[in-house]
Structures are given as C-alpha cells and as structure tokens.
Design brief:
Pfam family, one: Acyl-CoA_dh_N
Family: Belongs to the acyl-CoA dehydrogenase family.
Number of domains: 3
Cofactor: FAD
InterPro entries: Acyl-CoA_Oxase/DH_mid-dom_sf (IPR046373), AcylCo_DH-like_C (IPR036250), AcylCo_DH/oxidase_C (IPR009075), AcylCoA_DH/ox_N (IPR013786), AcylCoA_DH/ox_N_sf (IPR037069), AcylCoA_DH/oxidase_NM_dom_sf (IPR009100)
Distance between the termini: 36 Å
CATH architecture of the largest domain: Up-down Bundle
GO molecular function, one term: flavin adenine dinucleotide binding
Shape: globular
Oligomer: single chain
C-alpha cells in the first residue's frame, strides 16, 4: 500500500472540493435529494460520474493490480471529508467503500466478479451491500439472508431493511448463510427475483431500501471460514471513512454557525459577541477537534493494519463523530434562531444527516460498549458508558 503525503492528501481534497462546489451546491442537493430531478432520489449521477472519471474516487484505495492507486484508508478519508462538507448525494460510502471492499477483500479471480469490479471502478455501475437486517451494527449471528444451491446454481432468500443506496444500485453484494456458515455473494439488483422498495427516510441524501430476495440467482464469491472476519474488517473501514464524512459536515456546520453569529445583529451588536453564543461555538470547536482526532486515528489504524486495535478505533470514531455532528447540528439550529427551523435554511439538511449517521452501522451507545470491551477497559460482562 502506498501512503499519501500530507500535501498529496490536501491536493486530493482540493480536487474533490472543487467538484462539490461546482456540482453539489445547497440548491442542487435539495433538487437531487428532495425534488427528484434525477431517476433515483438521493443519487446525483452527474456528480458521481465526475468524481469517478476526473478525480478517480472509486480507484483510490484499490490495489494496483485491479487498476487502483492503492492509497489506503487515509485517502478515502480525505475524499469523505469533502463529501461530508457539502452533503454530496453520492454512494461513496455504500458503493466505493463498503461493497467494493467486500469484493476486493474476498480475493477471488472469477470473471463475473472481475467484470462487476471493473464497472464499479469506472463508476459506470454502483453497488450496495446487504449485510445486516436493519442497517445497524454487524453481528455474524443475525444475518437475514440464506443461500441454497439449486440445480441452476445458488439462490438467495430473505429480507433486509435500511440498505444504503439500495434503490439505485446495479449490483448487490450479499452476506448470506449456507446452513449456519456465512458466505459472500454478488448478484444483479435488477433480477426479477429481487424486490426493492424505497423507504421513507429522514435524510434524502442517504436513500435506503428494503430488499427482498425470492430465490434470487446469485454468484458465490467466497465461502471461506474467514468471511465473518473479512466482513468485520470491512465494516470497521467503512465506519472509519463514515466518521471522516461526519467530521467534514461538523466542520462546515461550525463555519456556518460562526459566520451567521458574526453577521446577524441584535441590540445593535453581532450576536456572536454574546457570551452564550460564544460558548456554543467554542464547545462545537472542541467537539470538532476531538472528532477529527478520533477519525484520523481510526483511518491510520486501518492503514497500519492494526488488526487487534482497528475494531475499537473504528467504534471510537463512530461514537465520537456521531455525537460531535449531532451536537454541532443542534447548535447551528439554535444560533440561527427562528430561521434555523425553516425549510429555506440549510440547518435542517445537516440535522437530518446528523440524525441519520448517528444510527447508521450502529448507535453511539452500542459503539461505546464495543469500544470498552474491545479495548480491554472492561473484562467480561456488558460494558456500559
């Protein structure tokens, strides 16, 4: 794996920010996610094409033998940070990180898998991962899909909810059980035996779907004994990258809050001069820096291959960044006063993102417990924060 220097990461971030400033303005985010100007709500196909073809976000962390750059988690984090700032409506976390990494980590040389991977790297296809029953914390004993071998091949049966970017995906990467043993499959999302239903979500830039498999034909990618460990590592990477998105959104919220506090006048003075507002902004800055450190630590743990520690680093980042973003979103609403409660202001867009990311891949309370157990703070029993 090649590690990007700080300057190179900044250049990468600058390229992503330029694309987002051009194609992910607040007005465009509203149009794509809430007004449905594209075929699939919450998926900006034009922005995704630019990010894939001009910046190469889908190939950044892939091994060089698969046409990627092999830059690792920190590079993914640099991209995610900028996407989080603008609430970009693209399936970066769902497709480029979670689903693609699962296929790459399986290390198979099947033509069918290679063909789908090529499309994902080019950006001509997107994928969604079906891993848990409710989009929450990954548990090997709670896999909702089962696999059976028929005369025509493998078929999948089961239902999973809250599949991130599941409606627009071309491919589905599915963890299913053969008997009681987890295995990895891939299939065409447009197959007639696959039924997808859009869900009513709070944050329309994070579209989700309920997906039902009714004896859907699928390609077996791998059934190695290490599949649970592979999925766990991939989920840890995904949470680390998600935390970078959360840091980006939190950073942008602080900028919005302080700018409004400087320009909004009350009683003939800027509201930012009042101690209560100063303290809210200062507390948000402290939370942001905590979150930035936690996220970067998790990304570096992934790059360094700290197998025994990456799990609790990922949980720490997910918990800290979720709470920081939620706090920043609420402070932003409060500083904006009555304006912050209106549809016309951007405050609710970030609040929706904060509340959605809070429960995505597990709630903060679950990750605090996981952190306590995995890091050895507690031995035995259920750890509570």
């Amino acid at each position: 794996m090649t590690t990007l220097s700080i300057d190179e990461r900044q250049q990468l971030a600058k390229s992503v920010r330029a694309a987002c400033e051009r194609l992910s303005s607040e007005e465009r985010v509203r149009a794509v996610a809430y007004n449905g100007i594209h075929q699939h709500k919450g998926f900006d196909a034009e922005l995704w094409t630019v990010l894939c073809s001009q910046v190469g976000v889908t190939a950044i962390a892939l091994p060089e033998n698969l046409g990627g750059a092999g830059y690792g988690a920190s590079a993914l984090g640099a991209v995610a940070h900028e996407l989080g700032r603008s609430l970009a409506a693209v399936p970066f976390v769902a497709s480029a990180v979670l689903a693609t990494t699962l296929l790459v980590a399986a290390q198979t040389e099947q033509p069918e898998v290679d063909r789908r991977l090529a499309g994902l790297v080019e950006g001509s296809r997107t994928a969604a991962a079906v891993i848990t029953s409710d989009g929450g914390l990954w548990r090997p004993d709670a896999i909702p899909v089962t696999a059976e071998q028929s005369t025509a091949g493998w078929v999948l049966t089961g239902t999973a909810r809250h599949i991130l970017h599941g409606s627009a995906a071309d491919d589905l990467v599915v963890v299913a059980t053969i008997g009681e043993v987890p295995a990895l499959f891939v299939l065409d999302a447009m197959a007639p035996e696959v039924f997808r239903k859009d869900e009513q979500v709070l944050d329309h830039t994070r579209p989700m779907a309920t997906i039902t498999f009714s004896s859907a034909p699928a390609t077996l990618v791998s059934r190695r004994e290490s599949i649970p460990e592979l999925v766990s590592r991939t989920m840890d990477l995904t949470m680390a990258v998600l935390s970078a998105e959360q840091v980006g959104a939190c950073e942008r919220l602080l900028e919005i809050s302080t700018e409004y506090a400087r320009t909004r006048h009350q009683f003939n003075r800027p509201i930012g001069s009042f101690q209560a507002v100063k303290h809210k902004c200062a507390d948000t800055l402290v939370d942001l820096e905590w979150a930035r450190s936690a996220s970067q630590a998790a990304l570096e743990a992934m790059d360094d291959g700290l197998t025994g520690e990456s799990t609790w680093y990922a949980s720490m980042a997910k918990a800290v960044c979720s709470e920081a973003l939620q706090g920043a979103a609420h402070v932003n609403v409060q500083i904006h006063g009555g304006l912050g409660f209106t549809w016309e202001d951007s405050a609710h867009l970030y609040l929706r993102r904060a509340r959605t990311d809070e429960v995505l891949f597990g709630k903060p309370s679950e990750h605090w417990d996981r952190l306590a157990l995995e890091s050895g703070i507690f031995t035995g029993g259920n750890a509570k924060r």
